[in-house]
Amino acid sequence: MDIKGLTAVVTGGASGLGAATARALAARGAKVAIFDLQKDKGEAIAAEIGGVFCAVDVTSDESVDAGFARAREALGQERILVNCAGTGNAIKTASRAREDGSIRHYPIEVFDRIIQINLVGTFRCIAKSAAGMLAVEPLESGERGAMVNTASVAAEDGQIGQVAYSASKAGVIGLTLPVARDLSNDGIRINTILPGIFETPLLMGQPQHVVDALGASVPFPKRLGRPDEYARLAIEMIENPYFNGEDVRLDGAIRMAPR
Known about the structure:
The chain is an alpha/beta fold. Helix content is 45%, strand content 17%. Helix 1 (16-27) links the parallel strand 1 and strand 2. The longest helix has 27 residues, at 108-134. The chain starts with 6 loop residues before the first strand and ends in a 9-residue tail after the last strand. It holds the Pfam family adh_short.
């Protein structure tokens, strides 16, 4: 797929992996719409790359519908979707409080929130974008569009306290092949990246010794992943027409320990 001149939507595009991907797409001539809740950051990046910012909550049908409507009105029907919106936390399934020995379990409403953002929110954007892509004629290559999702190595190497996050990201992996098969007859491809430990705003806010230790735990190269490295793989998945239905780790060969 030749990216130049095509419209792309990047969820979570105001920072981290999403921002790097939005910049990479724009550098290749795409018209980029950024879906995010971080208005100031999202508008700044959109202005930088000549794109459009849409305030979007991926847990809301109405918000996602409004975002796609605004993006399509401004830039045209998207042929590219990259899902980077997501969140995480660290809570054990059940645990005993150090203070008084009382026993508590994972709050179900918190578990559901992670699933709603990371898994359901991803699929919501996939389904609505796919419906839009189906309405346009295929490109010369026969393709109507390409999508990239963001899972995590935690889907396979979930650590203590990552039960909701790991489950949500495993769900993203689980939907990749069925969606690829669902859309194959209409020339729409989909792939998923499983990032390891990357330089994201959340992680880089940790103390330097914590960041250094995490980087040293990667077999090679012994550092954190860089957002532009994620973007490079996303671009390859979009441009390479034979890349379809795949889940690819991008992690420097790390395998996460229990904690």
